[in-house]
């Protein structure tokens, strides 16, 4: 019996490549990319005060582009390449066809697919960090921060946890799709960066309403749906584990959103749209380290926990702790990503199912991956406590790593350019920083408002346009 011609190996489809896995992995990478561009661009642009809409969306767009250049230049192989030390790989390019067409270190697809998929993870991490410093960080400082943090922080965490040669990977930490590498890192790094950059202007900190809630919801929807690829792509295969991971992701997110909503109504008397989005995010973050290794009923319990504990830390505890009040974390990334990421890691250590861990890791020593609940149930109590301890070690490493590296990076950037915008720029916003505004009146294709810093047209032309428009309005 012969295979159909479309299944026969050839030069472009070698024997080791699984076409279905490769197709799914590229699709998953695209879904994760859409979470950032345009997902988080739209979410950030709609969720901030009107005068910061352009700056916030542009910071996300720049980070996406800059990370890709750095990733193929040196980042990917520092995160997944040959060992330099136990927590870092040797820098090398991922540009030549010989390397890109070889089989990836995991999965049945080429390196080029792995580079693309892991780039999307790296990019969204930087964009999430940006959510903590919106409304006051210098764009020039952000341009330096992105490649430096990717190189000297992200690659450390990714290599340690996800690379088979990393020390935490060998120790047995379970981080299915980035609860530690992405979300805990982003939450801690964002909070640390917010400390060094300083707070927004007093006016902005007192009142910072979303300029477009419907646009914010559109971005949130892209973020949620894109998580199918985020967690569903983590097994590197079109498998039963990827299907379970996708289902658990949405179940946890929905449960967390509803939990947050109920708490908002019970305590504050009104259902908050912004609160519902925050609850959705905490659920998505919490399930990420566990998505394919826990039961669906466990995903519901994780959703209840992720919708309540971060709600409490953000809405109640935040106002009682001096440090949390002092650090101006614009989008509460510390609560939605650091707290939720910690919860996810701990709950993974409790709910991880040995059988599912075997299906996901596919290694000889898979029996070490057992949640405490199943350790107690099967008489392997010490193994369950060991897994819980390993999860805590992973949390401690990521927290310490990001506090130290992010602080050093911010202090270094200060030597070159100011981290913070000037008082005038803080007062004006987008027009002062970029010479552009998100919502401007237009007449015959030209700006109605007079920009101080963007000489698109001269003053006489503006005066003529203004007079004509004013006359038309009076006639109406």
From TrEMBL:
Protein origin, superkingdom: Eukaryota
Domain annotation Ammonium transporter AmtB-like: ranges: 23-439
Transport keyword on record: yes
Record's bilayer topology term: Multi-pass membrane protein
Example GO molecular function: ammonium channel activity
Cellular location(s): Cell membrane
GO CC, one annotated term: plasma membrane
Keywords: Ammonia transport, Membrane, Transmembrane, Transmembrane helix, Transport
Family, per entry: Belongs to the ammonia transporter channel (TC 1.A.11.2) family.
PANTHER family cross-referenced by the UniProt entry: AMMONIUM TRANSPORTER 2 MEMBER 4, AMMONIUM TRANSPORTER MEP2
Protein name per UniProt: Ammonium transporter
Biological source species: Escallonia herrerae
């Amino acid at each position: 019996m012969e295979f159909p011609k479309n299944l026969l190996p050839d030069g472009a489809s070698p024997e080791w490549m699984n076409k279905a896995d490769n197709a799914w992995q590229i699709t998953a990478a695209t879904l994760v990319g859409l979470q950032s561009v345009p997902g988080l661009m739209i979410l950030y642009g709609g969720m901030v005060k009107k005068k910061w809409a352009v700056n916030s969306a542009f910071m996300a767009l720049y980070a996406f582009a800059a990370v890709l250049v750095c990733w193929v230049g040196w980042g990917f192989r520092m995160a997944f390449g040959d060992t330099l030390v136990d927590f870092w790989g040797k820098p090398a390019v991922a540009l030549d066809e010989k390397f890109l067409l070889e089989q990836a270190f995991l999965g049945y697809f080429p390196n080029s697919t792995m580079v693309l998929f892991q780039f999307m993870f790296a990019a969204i991490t930087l964009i999430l960090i940006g959510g903590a410093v919106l409304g006051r960080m210098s764009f020039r400082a952000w341009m330096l921060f992105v490649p430096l943090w990717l190189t000297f922080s992200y690659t450390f965490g990714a290599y340690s946890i996800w690379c088979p040669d990393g020390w935490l990977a060998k120790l047995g930490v379970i981080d299915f799709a980035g609860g530690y590498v992405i979300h805990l890192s982003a939450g801690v790094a964002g909070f640390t960066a917010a400390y060094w950059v300083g707070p927004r202007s007093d006016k902005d900190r007192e009142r910072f309403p979303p300029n477009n809630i419907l646009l914010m919801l559109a971005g949130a929807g892209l973020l949620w749906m894109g998580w199918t690829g985020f967690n569903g792509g983590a097994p590197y295969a079109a498998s039963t584990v990827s299907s379970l991971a996708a289902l658990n992701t949405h179940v946890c997110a929905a449960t967390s959103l509803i939990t947050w909503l109920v708490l908002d109504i019970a305590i504050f008397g009104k259902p908050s749209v912004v609160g519902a989005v925050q609850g959705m995010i905490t659920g998505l973050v919490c399930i990420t380290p566990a998505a394919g290794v826990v039961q669906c009923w466990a995903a519901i319990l994780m959703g209840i926990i992720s919708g309540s504990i971060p709600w409490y830390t953000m809405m109640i505890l935040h106002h009682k702790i001096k440090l949390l009040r002092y650090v101006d974390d614009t989008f509460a990334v510390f609560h939605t990503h650091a707290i939720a990421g910690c919860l996810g890691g701990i709950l993974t250590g409790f709910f991880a199912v040995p059988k599912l861990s075997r299906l996901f890791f596919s290694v000889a020593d898979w029996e070490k991956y057992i949640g405490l609940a199943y350790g107690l149930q099967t008489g392997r109590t010490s193994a369950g406590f060991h897994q819980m301890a390993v999860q805590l070690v992973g949390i401690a490493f990521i927290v310490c790593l990001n506090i130290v590296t992010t602080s050093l990076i911010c202090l270094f950037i200060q030597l070159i350019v100011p981290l913070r915008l000037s008082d005038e720029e803080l007062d004006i916003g987008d027009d002062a920083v970029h010479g552009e505004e998100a919502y401007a009146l237009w007449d015959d294709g030209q700006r109605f408002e007079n920009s101080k810093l963007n000489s698109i047209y001269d003053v006489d032309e503006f005066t003529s346009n203004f007079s004509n428009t004013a006359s038309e309005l009076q006639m109406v």
